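Researcher: Here's the sequence for the chain we discussed earlier.
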Amino acid sequence: MNIVCLDMEGVLVPEIWIAFAEETGIPELRITTRDEPDYDKLMKYRIGILKEHGLGLKEIQATIEKIQVMDGAKEFLDELRSITQVVILSDTFDQFAAPLMKKLGWPTIFCNTLEVAPNGEITGYKMRCQQSKLTTVKALQSIGFDTIASGDSFNDLGMIQASKAGFLFKSTDKIKADYPQIPAYETYDELLAAIKAAL
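Model: Thanks. This is the structure I predict for it:
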């Protein structure tokens, strides 16, 4: 039994925080998990910047509504889901993901939750579990699944390396150089072919 585990941002949809940084003109919000491996440090940094600028959930959700999925992402996902089970493992949040999942045809996603004050201020976040992607892949393996994983960032490396097959997709030059043993692809056709070969 195979299950494919895909990252969301940078793989199927553009990076939410980069889109929000462009929308607000706050370049400090452009930093993502491609740049900062420590997720807790990254989120505390982001929450601090939001507080400093008086921005909250409502403003981010307004930006997310305008984000379109990457060209070919829905077609890729539809074809993949027609041949095997697929789950999206993301370090994004329930409050961010729904409009994007709608545009992708409502695939299954496991993600985290933001802590939001009544006035809409983001005060913190709750991880579904520690090292959520790697932990989830190991849990799926423990119930009889062989996992195949793909992502683009530091926080995807654990699930990629723990799976029977794993691929970088649209990753950074640095990550590709640091992990030359992981096959790296730039197009959905290449990734789909690699996944099919691994099934």
